[in-house]
């Protein structure tokens, strides 16, 4: 009697290929889903106003209205607002990175009484929404005469940001202390250890908080809306709101201007995403 052989099953390599293919299909589907608003914004920026609200919607503009871009940038006074945004953004990046690095270095490397208590106290401030403290903060800045200037938006960044301090502290703790001890034997002080050892090894974490701060400040609408009163001091985030009138809105120009304002965030993340991912994933390796 002939023995019938069992049908061969899938090999391990074939199962891995099928699994990865299935995962890639899901990821591509979600990627396309999340790209729809961006693609619709691009499409609307090249249409006439009447074509935006057609049903069923037309994804390909007919005709392509390229003049929406120069008209939008001219209407929102783009160059002065870009200058204000760059000053605001890079000033807060410098302040938050310097102050957060120094505070995180102290929490990660120095042993002092109450270190864990003060660290937890600092972290707990993250649970307070900024809207809760906006009124007393506004009163203080009014008393100082800082309203209608960029001082209330820039100077607080030089006193540290709790979330960035937490990320940097966790990253600093992954750096072996043997490097500090070897540097001390060679005659290095704590400041030189910080500048020549800790900071060069912390480029991924620093890049991550630079990207966080850039995106947050570049898109910040609430802070400038509260503290700035003159349109000549507006950043781009407030300039976009000028397209929305009481009785009508130039949606095609608003989409064109929004796309231009969005591009720097996309470009920076595209070129720095490797360091950004490393900075986020490595901060939890040691606590």
Distance between the termini: 67 Å
Q: In the CATH classification, which architecture of the largest domain applies?
A: Orthogonal Bundle
**How many distinct domains?**
2
* Anisotropy-based shape: flat
Helix content: 55-70%
**SSE sequence, one letter per element:** HHHHHHHHHHHHHH
What is the radius of gyration computed over CA atoms, rounded to a whole number of angstroms?
26 Å
So what's the CATH class of the largest domain? Mainly Alpha
Integer average pLDDT:
85
Counting DSSP H or I runs of 4 or more residues, the number of helices is: 14
CATH topology of the largest domain: MetI-like fold
Multimeric organization: single chain
Beta-strand percentage range: under 5%
What is the number of beta strands?
0
> Which class of secondary structure composition applies to the elements?
mainly alpha
Low-confidence stretches: none
For the record, what is the CATH homologous superfamily label of the largest domain? MetI-like
What's the story with the biggest beta sheet?
none
Architecture overview:
The chain is mainly alpha-helical and 287 residues long. It folds into two domains: 12-44; 68-284, MetI-like (MetI-like fold, Orthogonal Bundle). Helix content is 68%, strand content 0%. It contains 14 helices and no strands. It is flat. The N and C termini lie far apart (67 Å). The mean pLDDT is 85.
What descriptors fit this protein?
flat; 287 residues; single chain; mainly alpha; 14 helices; MetI-like fold; 68% helix; 2 domains
SSE map:
Blueprint: H1 12-44, H2 49-52, H3 68-75, H4 78-109, H5 115-124, H6 130-144, H7 151-154, H8 162-172, H9 178-185, H10 190-201, H11 203-218, H12 222-227, H13 236-241, H14 251-281
